[in-house]
């Protein structure tokens, strides 16, 4: 396996007009690396998910999660210490967990996407379990 720092950075696929992204955290324990999948979903036809609201913190990314593509390729996604701590606490060893987290589920580098997703953020949280 390639070291985490040797992995290419994750690149988002654009969302369709009504879609959201959901993050599936794969099982793991303790300080194990965090492996995830990002998938697109329609709000009225998506799996059960939990919404995570947290303080981003003031420092930049200091950790990474590994995002797995549908064909099994691995990509690095830099995240903050706060988010890393939260994901380590939230993942459940025997099963995966599906979440909506703005820092990962919204392409923060795409102003148009960010604007359209922020507008629907209230309903995204309301639809979470």
TrEMBL record:
Residues annotated as domain Heterokaryon incompatibility: 49-129
InterPro entries: HET, HetReg/Transcr_Mod
Domain of life: Eukaryota
Name of the molecule in the record: HET-domain-containing protein
Lineage of the species this protein comes from: Eukaryota, Fungi, Dikarya, Ascomycota, Pezizomycotina
């Amino acid at each position: 396996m390639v070291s985490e720092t040797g992995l290419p950075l994750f690149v988002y696929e654009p969302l369709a007009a009504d879609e959201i992204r959901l993050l599936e955290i794969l099982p793991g324990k303790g300080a194990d690396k965090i492996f995830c999948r990002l998938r697109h979903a329609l709000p009225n036809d998506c799996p059960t998910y939990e919404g995570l609201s947290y303080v981003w913190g003031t420092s930049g990314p200091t950790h990474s999660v590994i995002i797995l593509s549908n064909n099994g390729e691995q990509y690095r996604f830099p995240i903050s210490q706060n988010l890393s701590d939260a994901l380590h606490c939230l993942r459940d060893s025997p099963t995966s967990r599906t979440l909506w987290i703005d820092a990962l589920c919204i392409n923060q580098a795409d102003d148009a996407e960010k604007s359209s997703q922020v507008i629907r953020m209230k309903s995204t949280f309301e639809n979470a379990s």
